[in-house]
Input
Amino acid sequence: MEIYRLRYPDRVDIGEKHDYSLAIGFFDGIHKGHQEVICSAKKTAEKLAIQTAVMTFDPHPSQLFSGKNIGYITPFEEKVRLLEGLHVDALFIVSFDWALASLSPQQFIDIFVKGLHVKHVTAGFDFTFGAKGAGTMEDMNRLSEGLYGTTTVSKVTFDENGKTSSTKIRQLLSEGNVEDASRLLGRPFRTVGEVVHGEKRGRQLGFPTANIQTDEEHIVPANGVYAVTCLIDGTWYNGVCNMGVKPTFHNPEHRQATAEVHLLDASMDLYGKHIAIDWLYRIRSEKKFESLDALKEQIAKDKQTAIDLLNE
Output
């Protein structure tokens, strides 16, 4: 997959000319709704005998306008891996800044659709573009001048609560509901990070853990204990993970939540390694214990619960 970073008003140069069937959107999470859009673009590419491209933006428009971290579901490297798995030929990453945000819908189309040899545009029903989001997929079609076709993908629903969306997934994760979040994603929710030195509390309690430092820009599940699987140097391991502030030892108001993983079926030196964590089941909420013995007893129960869940 070819990756191109584009910034307006810099000259757009994508090298060898290809015609593209373009799926366009932010695609945070590459969830089931996003997959419908991308797969539709792929089918059109096959029909027209052209390449499939995906256009996304960096940062998220909401982050530019609000100045606040939205909590990304998918780190960039993970997004690339997922798109490669969907057999996308080209990825256009457009810098979303105030210059881009000021373009009219017509200007956006002239530069980022017609200017990139796009022959078909596919997006979700709620995709907007141009200054103040004034452009819709109806405008995308109306302004095509016959140079490209368009497909608008209807919403993908998970249940009676409405469409599959990145916002819904963030809400579920903030509640610790990793099971339903994973169903919307079509795969387990994943975080990645580096193993760093911690307080070694787990080792003192007889349950050594790896402290995972994740990027602050990316969302993590609500504080609690989870059954997880971990990808380490190409091998998967079962684990139990505490996401939280360790209230038995610290004032929760003065601590940033961290992920601590205890591997169920292996023991190794992990410092400095990068680990991917797939969050599969929530076991319980984080709580403060009155004694270390009570904490050790609960950890043993959590470990057995994780073993039972992961062996089902």
